[in-house]
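User: Teach me something about this protein's shape.
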Amino acid sequence: MSTFPKNQLSRLRRILFSTQKAPQLSPGRTLPPASNLRQTAMDHAAPASPIRVVSTFSSPLDGPIDASSSMRKPISLWPGMYHSPVTNALWEARSSIFERLLDPSTDGPPQRELLTKTPSQSRTSIVYNFSGDYILREQYRDPWNEVRIGKLLEDLDALAGTIAVKHCSDDDHTTRPLLLVTASADKMILKKPLFVDKDLKMSGSVTWVGRSSIEIQITVTQFDQENPTESESDPLALTACFTFVARDSKTLKSAPVNRLAPETELEKLFLEEGEARDKLRKRKREEGELAFEGGHCIPGGTKRLKSLLSEGRVFCDLPALADRDSILIRDTRLENSLICQPQQRNLHGRIFGGFLMHRAFELAFSTAYAFVGRKPYFFEVDHVDFLKPVDVGDFLRLKSCVLYTELENPEKPLINIEVVAHVTRPELRSSEVSNTFYFTFTLGCDALENGVKIRNVVPATEEEARRVLERMDAEKMFS
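Assistant: First, the predicted structure itself:
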């Protein structure tokens, strides 16, 4: 297996990589409240020298970029990789691990003995040098000079995958590596806007492990370089939690992963929270199986369905008398289709999960934009389960709609968007749901001050009404 020449790596990226243990609580000190701990988690645990994501070129005046130049070939010739500035930096920094995964031998034995690792051994930080890197800034800029959230979701999944690989690595090149798959992503709430002219940092580590499951928590922070003291108290912009499952690369059965040994009180707290989330996931899965066997049961179902459908019936039967401040769900739909290309695959030959989240977000944003007629502001993405793998060559159809709106708070109305990803195989005349994404958007103060009104969205069919009620109930259960 060939490796990159050192001179090419240095010309491609300036990468600094190191890890250090998270700070211990000194004797006699008490643990701060959980909310404070969560906000400062990764700042205290981040490595001293994070990976810096910078572009090859710092100015558009340096001349045209030659995509075929030898300086850019090594990374692009690695097969089976999704590419972005972040994934390139991560893979270069840990090239020895990933070279092994690029050409895995399924003939090798499985890992003989599980290791015990600390969170600090998997902890990884990335810095986006937006303030000083023109090319990088342009890659992440949206039309309103903010960071493109879809690309950020991609990068979060890429970073989580790298952290999972580091935790599962046994440093034995004779054993076959594990197949790591994104199982789910917990709810992510954007706490403040992310600007593309200010440096941004992502930090993460393994916080909980089960027998074959790994939970990774990542924080995104952004400081104001001009007035660092003003934002010092609240740099946290977003927290993400991903769950990966390990499979044997030969048998494809679940495989055990290395154990986790928390060192600090903070890491122990994260471990306890991970245990609680795992129990909640199992309970939710059991309830889902019971509901599937006995049919969907909605609390107060019949009465709530009739109430929700009443306005929709007027739209269908007496459209001239329908409420002009309302609109049918079906009239808010948008759709996007694409063929999944080899360039979008991950190390294991499947379509990169972050790519799916990116495309779903872009469609959800467009749906909200067309619905309100003003720029929507991203608020949160709800828990995502990756139900079915998506392969190269699959015909992927993304269908979106405004599922319902929440207008109780006039200062912060919420628009709930549903995006369903269908994997369609025309040759087999089959279509099945791969993922369902739920995004929530709101409006800016300027739009609300100018009198922009958000319409109420109503279902026209019982199936739509059930989807709305199930989504509302799920939101209440996890809030």
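Now, about its shape. The radius of gyration is 24 Å. Confidence is low (pLDDT under 50) at residues 1-26, 33-48, 56-82. If you'd like, I can walk through any region in more detail.
User: That's plenty for now, thanks!
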